[in-house]
């Protein structure tokens, strides 16, 4: 089954009727922004991945999740009373 010009025209007509001609440019702009953000994030992730591989990091040398959450920096802080009196 092929999609011909009639089917494409019907789909476009339904979209225009559902969203209205006034909202379509706004919708297209927001989708364009979203795609640009997505592409930049994917590119950034690839660059981070390449950088970490180039530095020769070994998976075993990375800190495990359990070690991270058990580290002193991640533990709740105990606060002392402001006036120094313990009632």
From TrEMBL:
It holds the Pfam family TatA_B_E. Residues 44-87 are annotated as: Disordered. One of its GO terms (biological process) is protein transport by the Tat complex. Its main location: membrane. It is found in: Cell membrane. One of its GO terms (molecular function) is protein transmembrane transporter activity. It comes from the Bacteria. Signal peptide: none annotated. It is a single-pass membrane protein. The keyword Transport applies. Keywords: Cell membrane, Membrane, Protein transport, Translocation, Transmembrane, Transmembrane helix, Transport. The chain crosses the membrane at residues 6-25. One of its GO terms (cellular component) is TAT protein transport complex. Part of the twin-arginine translocation (Tat) system that transports large folded proteins containing a characteristic twin-arginine motif in their signal peptide across membranes. TatA could form the protein-conducting channel of the Tat system. The Tat system comprises two distinct complexes: a TatABC complex, containing multiple copies of TatA, TatB and TatC subunits, and a separate TatA complex, containing only TatA subunits. Substrates initially bind to the TatABC complex, which probably triggers association of the separate TatA complex to form the active translocon. This is Sec-independent protein translocase protein TatA. It comes from Corynebacterium hiratae. The lineage of its organism: Bacteria, Bacillati, Actinomycetota, Actinomycetes, Mycobacteriales.
């Amino acid at each position: 089954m092929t999609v011909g010009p009639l089917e494409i025209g019907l789909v476009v007509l339904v979209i225009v009727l559902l969203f209205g001609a006034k909202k379509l440019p706004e919708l297209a702009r927001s989708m364009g922004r979203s795609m640009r953000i997505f592409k930049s994030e994917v590119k950034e992730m690839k660059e981070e991945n390449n950088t970490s591989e180039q530095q020769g990091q070994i998976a075993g040398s990375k800190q495990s999740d359990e070690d991270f959450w058990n580290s002193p920096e991640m533990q709740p802080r105990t606060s002392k009373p402001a006036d120094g009196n313990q009632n």
